[in-house]
Amino acid sequence: MMKKVITFGELLLRLAPKEYLRFSQASSFDLVYGGGESNVAVSLANYGVSVDFVTRLPKNYIGECAMMEMRKHGVGVDKIVWGGERLGIYYLEVGSGARGSNVVYDRANSSMATIKRGTINWKEVLQDATWFHWSGITPAISESAAQECLEAIKAAHELRITISTDLNYRSKLWQYGKTPKDIMPELLQYSNIILGDLDTAFFMLGKNKVHPDYQDEKSLPVLYDALFQSCPNLITAATTLRYSIGASHQQIGGVLYDGKSIFTADVKNVTPVVDRVGSGDAFMAGLIYGLIHNVDDQQRALNLAVAACCLKHTIKGDANLVTLEELEKLIGGDASGSIVR
Amino acid sequence: MMKKVITFGELLLRLAPKEYLRFSQASSFDLVYGGGESNVAVSLANYGVSVDFVTRLPKNYIGECAMMEMRKHGVGVDKIVWGGERLGIYYLEVGSGARGSNVVYDRANSSMATIKRGTINWKEVLQDATWFHWSGITPAISESAAQECLEAIKAAHELRITISTDLNYRSKLWQYGKTPKDIMPELLQYSNIILGDLDTAFFMLGKNKVHPDYQDEKSLPVLYDALFQSCPNLITAATTLRYSIGASHQQIGGVLYDGKSIFTADVKNVTPVVDRVGSGDAFMAGLIYGLIHNVDDQQRALNLAVAACCLKHTIKGDANLVTLEELEKLIGGDASGSIVR
Amino acid sequence: MMKKVITFGELLLRLAPKEYLRFSQASSFDLVYGGGESNVAVSLANYGVSVDFVTRLPKNYIGECAMMEMRKHGVGVDKIVWGGERLGIYYLEVGSGARGSNVVYDRANSSMATIKRGTINWKEVLQDATWFHWSGITPAISESAAQECLEAIKAAHELRITISTDLNYRSKLWQYGKTPKDIMPELLQYSNIILGDLDTAFFMLGKNKVHPDYQDEKSLPVLYDALFQSCPNLITAATTLRYSIGASHQQIGGVLYDGKSIFTADVKNVTPVVDRVGSGDAFMAGLIYGLIHNVDDQQRALNLAVAACCLKHTIKGDANLVTLEELEKLIGGDASGSIVR
Amino acid sequence: MMKKVITFGELLLRLAPKEYLRFSQASSFDLVYGGGESNVAVSLANYGVSVDFVTRLPKNYIGECAMMEMRKHGVGVDKIVWGGERLGIYYLEVGSGARGSNVVYDRANSSMATIKRGTINWKEVLQDATWFHWSGITPAISESAAQECLEAIKAAHELRITISTDLNYRSKLWQYGKTPKDIMPELLQYSNIILGDLDTAFFMLGKNKVHPDYQDEKSLPVLYDALFQSCPNLITAATTLRYSIGASHQQIGGVLYDGKSIFTADVKNVTPVVDRVGSGDAFMAGLIYGLIHNVDDQQRALNLAVAACCLKHTIKGDANLVTLEELEKLIGGDASGSIVR
Amino acid sequence: MMKKVITFGELLLRLAPKEYLRFSQASSFDLVYGGGESNVAVSLANYGVSVDFVTRLPKNYIGECAMMEMRKHGVGVDKIVWGGERLGIYYLEVGSGARGSNVVYDRANSSMATIKRGTINWKEVLQDATWFHWSGITPAISESAAQECLEAIKAAHELRITISTDLNYRSKLWQYGKTPKDIMPELLQYSNIILGDLDTAFFMLGKNKVHPDYQDEKSLPVLYDALFQSCPNLITAATTLRYSIGASHQQIGGVLYDGKSIFTADVKNVTPVVDRVGSGDAFMAGLIYGLIHNVDDQQRALNLAVAACCLKHTIKGDANLVTLEELEKLIGGDASGSIVR
Amino acid sequence: MMKKVITFGELLLRLAPKEYLRFSQASSFDLVYGGGESNVAVSLANYGVSVDFVTRLPKNYIGECAMMEMRKHGVGVDKIVWGGERLGIYYLEVGSGARGSNVVYDRANSSMATIKRGTINWKEVLQDATWFHWSGITPAISESAAQECLEAIKAAHELRITISTDLNYRSKLWQYGKTPKDIMPELLQYSNIILGDLDTAFFMLGKNKVHPDYQDEKSLPVLYDALFQSCPNLITAATTLRYSIGASHQQIGGVLYDGKSIFTADVKNVTPVVDRVGSGDAFMAGLIYGLIHNVDDQQRALNLAVAACCLKHTIKGDANLVTLEELEKLIGGDASGSIVR
């Protein structure tokens, strides 16, 4: 049977000056629509997976444009709910070299942030699904979004749907009076797959990462095991390794633990960087695709994730507009960027 | 002595698709910063008037860009207060012919809307001023903005500063539980100059415009006199006459009453229309300039206002980037648009 | 039950210099995707009609982009067949005033032109449909396209689906050795609705329009009756009236005959013209919408068609990106193009 | 034998904000190269006439770009001389409606202005020519340019080459201490064809236009005869009639006198105006083409001139990028701007 | 005597999304005109060589624009023949880092592909020439193009004109039922200079590259000698060395054999890459220039070729818009990219 | 007391093709305004220093735009004098890799070059200042500019204002008959801070750099001491170290001598390079800021200078639009260019 994935989260309008201009130099903003969970949905649609994106959008021209962009990329939009006042925005100034990119969030009071618990009939939305994906951004934007996220998770769990989570910690969010450790432990207990570094995981779970048996990388499993103990449904945990040499030069690798073994992927140099926003989401989508299509091949899932993450850096916009064939080519070792003609 | 004008209101970021594209066709937005009262300030600066714009802006890159744009045009920005979370936005889709322009407001919870009464030390701000301008937009955005506007007005009145008001009714605002008639009568009682059509004026004052002595245009003074009675400090009332033949063709005239006589300006055809947003503000600024510089020549003030309004339609953006010489040329009857070389 | 419309035809890539530049001045081409029948599909999707577009596209990046654009606008794309070598192109240089627009066709050997009879399983494609739309362009591009069009028409007729046809005569096509009168009479005999002027209709049917009883406009029905006699399934015939005052000024009206009465719509001035390509398709879509939703109100169907045609002139691109509300506003007499805010 | 035309003058870089932006709104300038006499050359090349443009350009990247643009349009560039320091510039702000276009000249000390008498070997340059064209701009830019212009004129006259002149009065030029009447009478005495209104002609000749026998338009020939007396080689005098309704609406006609009869062309409405710069040069080129190819048909020459002038208003840039077929179409009465497809 | 070069081949329209956008993100295409042999012509014109480009272009606006672009760059266009239906197109998506560029060809049935044997009067075209250049693309596009290419080669050979060939193997071409080894051996037997790697050369000649005496790089001459034996007129064979580290980083060197000695050029790093299309043509043009101007200095010819190839990577478009001075600077060892001011 | 800086120099219009296009490929120029001394002023304003820029601008639209750009960035413009004919221009073609950038100057006869001695009332201009900055460009553009520069320097010296100088040698200037050694010694004797490499310093002072005691880097102080002897008011001398690996890769360090000790900053890699113009001015401004705010910490001043210089390479335009926080981050060792969100 065709696997059907549902991703749930906020869709934002991104406004960015052209090229490497600073905000004060801009006379126009390039616009794209994106968000952690919609980026995962677009990636999966590109890989041929049947996927629906669930969110709440304002019933105005801007909300409709956001939906149309998802539809253009083959993501199902029929389960989107309409209401609220505004589409959240983030302004992005793209850096270069030693000058980092800047993000100005303007997403408070968005339609997604003002969603109420119970707005979405999750039983119905998830009825044909085999996979549900959410990220740590949704519980960070408002208390009611966190509540609705929990509703979704519980429904998915009841329906025995696989649940994946990208921890996605954003320090500028979590402004509504709760901290991650107040909210995330309950949500994460249902997760079967978690993406995120261990520091973030333990921080969100309100735990101390220090472990008596940890000495060096070889004893990494003891840390992961501690994570698995906190998240009883956890099957796979993965981390993007990212070393930032500069805004234009990143190094990308990955680690995956399946409860038994550690899998690693070689660190790849990524330079130049066209756009690094959404590279974590690209990793997540590669991982999901691999776990769906190659159930017993964790190494391949990790390789897909890392390749997707690397290629995302060459794509403008939030979403990773690459094909499976392009992932395979890079996994196969061809990073030559040569032209076929 | 050099006249010093203070205008007070909200500054917005305008995001508009290029040319006549619909929102769903846009891959970028042209950006300008504007707002009714800042537009008046820019116009006055263009005419050589010393002018400061007072508002509240968020202390982030976007707020700074908004301020820099005012400063670029020679408007004083030292009295701007910094705080709050966001710069308000309006999305503009420019129409053509029978297709009108569309505006999507996203200005709730802006730094200006969340201003608190007493944020600004009006005594200090107004100490060198001889003129204070506000519009009906500020009391429409939030209760606290309305309160701070009243503080400003009272301080100006106490300091015997001339107060001008553009009624600027926006039906999509006034969302905070009050209607114009709850708020505006108190504010308008201090106004010395009011711009707005009589319907709007009576609506805002909560009065019925029907008057027993009104029969036709010749008895227009009886309506204005009723307005003057409601606004004890009123000296001059003016109205923009606007007939919209289509998004690309407007007809613009004006009426002014000084408590004794009606002055009118011939209706001018304006076609094509490059951008009609801010044309009322252009009228207001022309009027203020005229009333400052030609105290006893109401006809000239009206002519300046109408010429400014007409020329604004040829300028992209909210602000009327024209010179006094250009106003004079049009008042002098030269609408030929010919090149001098 | 929800009406389901199928439109069938070629989708082209349009390449146009920016603004009013001539080809020799262009350093880039703006690109849109369009075509008579896909334009009808996009319009209907905008009006909330369930609609699928059927065509044949090359399985390369350009073909995929064309499909994605349809999908973005909510047109069903699942019935598109993939094959062939290329997407047809037309180059468009937009005129102004007395300088007309220029079209350079480069559509020979497109995937649609090389479609073979039997490529599409029409029984299956049309199974849920209640309306089938085709135009005179498809039989003009190649003999095999004409054959496949006939297959579609016959299948639709058998399934008792309403068939609408836009005559769409293009003198630069019909290059494969057949003339309209060799091909069109057989195809048109199944049409229930025909859009096109009478000269074109009689020309395509290989008939002489001269009629002994025709004297002036009042005897127009005698001509239409002759058309109805040639097309035994015809129920409604309509014509766009178009007077071209210049590339920037058109006058648009319409005539409709339902076998009994002549309906007319007032001629409207359309100026300026942003883009007149696709205005006939906009008329067609308005007509179809009206005939579907207001079965007994031919005047309303005509009004919708004319309003849609007028508004298309204000929209860049082939497709008429307007809403039903905008049609209603214009039908209601509001051509003022005013802003609501 | 193929007619060979030589035009002589200055080539300028035009820098213009996009669309209708004011200078202070521009973040980029669109660039074109143009000038009265080069515009005539490009027009003639478009009409299939063999034509060389003679000027002096700086030997730097900017000068080379200017030359390449001429070459692109098929104008001979082998006779251009290289030297001097800079290419002259003019900044153009395009107006709309009642706001006229603005020109800022920055052309002093250009390579053409600093040309020395004798720089060009006119005998050689003109050896294959049958027509020489110059305009009143060249003697206006510097004394040495005026001298070199006279050299050219004398050489052409000696070689019995037809000489045409566009009076092209520019009040912002003539800054070098001489006035037109000091310089132009000597130059104009060799002209066989003069384009310009009579006021300008008499002003440049230092004569009073008032004539005892002139009463109304019917006695126009008496004025022209006076002009002919001052210019002993004059055969044809023509004038563009231009009424400026606004920057976006011009009315264009023409008058021609051949020493015997007055010919006139109907005034045509030109709206909207894409770019009116160079429309006089377009008129001139149409006239030259007509006088070369239809020696005895003055009316046709005038019609070509007026049609070319009208169409220029629809073309961006200085040069009139239209074809003979387009002129013929407009002369034939088709101003419908319709698309052929 | 001035050397006169003729290059013969197809001219294509290149359509490319802006910057690094993927096809599905493009709302416009940047356009340039190019092709292997026209690129060589433009390079030679830049270096001051008299050069004509011969091709067949459609007589429509697009064909004319292609010609104008050649003319702009100083390439002779008088020998171009006009006819056929269309200009071939290639769509280019520019890659970055590990994501390679993509090319979609749409060049079937172009005016050049449908050229007939005998269309061009080669005796006449070549009469003043001293050098004729063709590439392996022309015989790859259609059988008749291959035939006309052979006609040209034979005529050149008879006229004792030097013949150079770039092997330019394109696997996506050769679609007309012949393979390189069916066609190329006859054509290559007249070549005096061949550019291409040995694998391609032997493949096209239908030979096995394996040679009993070849062991390592030192015995490279034995392979070249085998090539010389297959091509009896061969004097010089050269190869571009290219190592693709990624789409943004190339390494470029070269090898040349003159029948006696191997010449090599140091491999240079080229990063970043602005546009690598046409870098082989740039190498070819540098080689031709060197062989024409420095007959006995093969090392210099190779150095010029490699320098030109490197610099091409910094230029947008197909053609290598650099000067001889820039080549010399790089050959001289200055790759610092410093500004002179 | 707030330190007040005055910088004095020429403001130029920069015209540059988009991205990496060559001049001959440009259809538009991006425009910025800049110049060595205005760049210093903008930097200082960004760092919160009160600063005025003094220059002479033409009273036309272009001059006004230049002033508005300074005002936008918070630089005081009230002391600018208006007059003269033109704003100087420089055309910039941005290089990449081994292809260097090209500059074409067109700045002769600018309003600044034609300034007369005594135009500016320096006593008044400098009355509130504590720092005066000039560079070697001003005395290079014309004799009268050199004279006025001397007037300024003398006035500053009399007022005991700190004087800083960037040697800024431009070989393409100095065209008015004087060489640096004729002019600079007198000007430099008043300088308290000099930025420039020692070769340039000695060249400008007309001295031989060879020194008997100089052996290697360790004896660098002997050279600096010689410089200090020639410039009796000198307190601090600094040099930017710049190694150009290519147009896209620079290495930046710095050296400072305070009469006692040598301070050095580590050489940093800067790649890619967005725009290197103005990086020396950025260094200068960082130095000035450091010397003003950290009087006794020469190492910190140098670090600020080097960090500012590095970051400038990531900013498009002449001026270094970075904040103090960004300088601090880089000085603190964070060159990761990571995003905070």
UniProtKB/TrEMBL annotation, chains A, B, C, D, E, F:
<keyword id="KW-0808">Transferase</keyword>
<dbReference type="Pfam" id="PF00294">
    <property type="entry name" value="PfkB"/>
</dbReference>
<feature type="domain" description="Carbohydrate kinase PfkB">
    <location>
        <begin position="2"/>
        <end position="314"/>
    </location>
</feature>
<dbReference type="GO" id="GO:0016301">
    <property type="term" value="F:kinase activity"/>
</dbReference>
<keyword id="KW-0418">Kinase</keyword>
<dbReference type="InterPro" id="IPR011611">
    <property type="entry name" value="PfkB_dom"/>
</dbReference>
<dbReference type="InterPro" id="IPR029056">
    <property type="entry name" value="Ribokinase-like"/>
</dbReference>
<comment type="similarity">
    <text>Belongs to the carbohydrate kinase PfkB family.</text>
</comment>
<protein>
    <submittedName>
        <fullName>2-dehydro-3-deoxygluconokinase</fullName>
    </submittedName>
</protein>
<dbReference type="InterPro" id="IPR052700">
    <property type="entry name" value="Carb_kinase_PfkB-like"/>
</dbReference>
